Amino acid sequence: MTDDRDTGLPSLREVIAQHGLDAKKSLGQNFLLDLNLTGRIARAAGPLKGITVVEVGPGPGGLTRALLAEGAEHVVAVERDKRCLPALEDISAAYPGRLTIIEGDALETDMRSLVAGRAKIVANLPYNIATPLLIGWLQTEPWPPWYESLTLMFQKEVAERIVAPPGGKSYGRLGVLAQWRTRPRMLFDIDRRAFTPPPAITSTVVELVPLPKPAAPADPRCLELVVASAFGQRRKMLRAALKTLVPDPLPLLQSAGIDPTTRAEQLSVAQFCLLAEAYRMRPRD
């Protein structure tokens, strides 16, 4: 594959110095400058030939370069920080016709409209918007979604919540929503010292592959409401925790065949789906 010596692009450290790209905490920025690591992330997304890759928060473009060098047919980079745009334009010039730069807030961007054909999402997500972005992608309708896979970097503790099985302290809202519609797995860690500036903790690359159909039938919005309520007071039994959702949770729990004394972390994804369906079908006043 092409590397930066072939394209004539300067090193990422030179780019940061040239454009004054000090990482902003307010934007959740931590720049990954090691091209060996960005290349590893790009390769983790699988073969990219014929694929359009959506990247969120490219910053100075380390991962962007790797995705293009690893053969992505096209990269659509969504970047909120205006300071990074000139650096991305330089990459676009080095890979003519293969990089589209979208200036804007990823949380407000309709990413489906940016691609046609086969697509994947690959990103070193800004930490402050990583979870809401993931939940939005998991709630995509219709399902299966417009993307073939998600290859995303999170803080390690968030990655552990995404893949956690029932019964443990890491199991919660994020794990239920992720495992309901995808097959998530942790791929590898990246040491905090690889970033500029170094974040407080280790980061982890996670792959989420959409299931052909969800693990069990449920309405996405109802499932999110039920799960948020159940884990909102996770130390309480469900008969008490779900009172933030409905005044009397007992009929819901009975309809779903769930013991009212159960706690949220004891329920499987399928049981949460039963509860969500019971909530959707509940009698209305």
Q: Which short descriptors sum up this protein?
A:
12 helices, Helicase, Ruva Protein, domain 3, 285 residues, two-stranded antiparallel ribbon, alpha/beta, elongated, 2 domains, Rossmann fold, 17% strand, 7-stranded mixed sheet
Could you list the spans in which at least 5 consecutive residues all have pLDDT below 50? none
Instruction: Count every beta strand, where a strand is a DSSP E run of 2 or more residues.
Output: 9
CATH fold field value of the largest domain = Rossmann fold
State mean pLDDT (0 to 100 scale). Answer: 92
Main pleated-sheet profile: 7 strands, mixed
Rg, nearest Å: 21 Å
Strand order of the largest sheet: 4-3-2-5-6-9-7
Question: Helical percent range?
Answer: 25-40%
Secondary structure category: alpha/beta
Number of helices in the DSSP assignment: 12
**CATH H-tier superfamily of the largest domain:** Vaccinia Virus protein VP39
Label the overall shape: elongated
Gross CATH architecture of the largest domain: 3-Layer(aba) Sandwich
Distance between the termini: 63 Å
